[in-house]
Structures are given as C-alpha cells and as structure tokens.
Design goal:
Length: 183
C-alpha cells in the first residue's frame, strides 16, 4: 500500500480494480470511497465535448482495461481492424470476439483499440467493462461472473445479492445486457 500511495492516482485505481477483479471484493470495498478522480456523472470535457486524456484513462481504468505494457510494439493495421469492428456495433449491436493463440497479443491490441477517445465517446459513452476469463474452474468463473454482475448493477437502486451459481449469473447477465446495456 505504501508503494501505491507514492504513485499517481491511476496506480491506486489499478490496484482497486485488481482487487475487485481477482475476487477480493471485500478489500476493494474498503478502498472504494478513496478512489481518486472517479466521476459517476458527466465524463466529458466541458471545453469541447471531447473526452480528455485524463478522462479517457479514468474510463479505461474504471472498466478494468489493461494498461499498455512497458514493452509495446505498435501494430496499427491490426488495431484499426479491431476498431472497425467496434465501430460496426453502432449500427448493428452485437459482440466483437478477438481470438488467437495464447501470447499473440489479443489483449494488448484490443486494449489499444479502446484507447481511441472518439470510439469511446461515440459508441461506448457509459464506458467499458473488461473481463479476462481464460481457463477457469467453475469456482473461478463464478467469481468473475459475480464481479461482472456487481459492476454492471453498481448504479441500480436495488442492491441484489450476488448470483449463487453459474446459471443464475448467466441469466442475470443476459437480462442486464438486453435491458440495461444493449450496446
């Protein structure tokens, strides 16, 4: 904690998101009130309506989007291909699935595509919710689904208990996606 406190606000938010996404919701809840720079309302810059760099970082951090790695190799053609598919969601809602062998750069490319402020502002005004599933046993998958339900229901007036099993979590997520987050 002392090391994190010597860093910038993004380090604190990243630590909070790591706790939240790795199944330490109780610890994350203790830190929630102290999250710096998290806005629940208007995320747009008052100057020109565009999302500022700081706001962009906050939106991505809140959604759990991985940060750019220290060693980063730009691959603009592949990033543009992902962005093009994400832009298609504006006229035809659905899913964009990025797949490939382990270690080929799926996460880095997709996270880089989401760093486009215009894409976020026009097509994902409520932010994004990043989930890394990978190979999980049933207990690990249930924890990830419970965390996602919690994140998506954060502004709900009804505080629901976490889903007790994978089927219940899938049903709740299906309803959330259809009713509350169709995009």
């Amino acid at each position: 904690i002392n090391i994190i406190l010597t860093k910038d606000n993004n380090s604190y938010r990243s630590f909070y998101n790591a706790l939240l996404h790795e199944g330490y919701r109780d610890l994350a809840a203790l830190l929630q009130d102290g999250i710096p720079g998290v806005s629940s309302g208007n995320r747009r810059s008052s100057m020109d309506g565009m999302t500022s760099y700081g706001q962009l970082k906050t939106i991505l951090c809140e959604g759990g989007v991985p940060q750019r790695p220290v060693v980063f190799v730009a691959r603009p053609k592949l990033v543009d291909a992902i962005k093009k598919k994400l832009y298609c969601l504006g006229s035809d809602p659905g899913w964009v699935i990025v797949y490939g062998m382990a270690g080929c750069g799926k996460t880095v490319l997709t996270a880089e595509a989401l760093r486009d402020p215009q894409l976020l502002e026009d097509y994902f005004p409520g932010g994004v919710h990043w989930i890394s599933v990978g190979k999980q046993d049933k207990a690990g998958l249930l924890i990830k689904l419970q965390n996602l339900c919690s994140r998506l229901e954060h502004d709900s007036t009804l505080s629901q208990r976490p889903p007790l099993n994978i089927e219940e979590a899938k049903d709740r997520l299906r309803l959330l996606m259809l009713r509350k987050y169709p995009r």
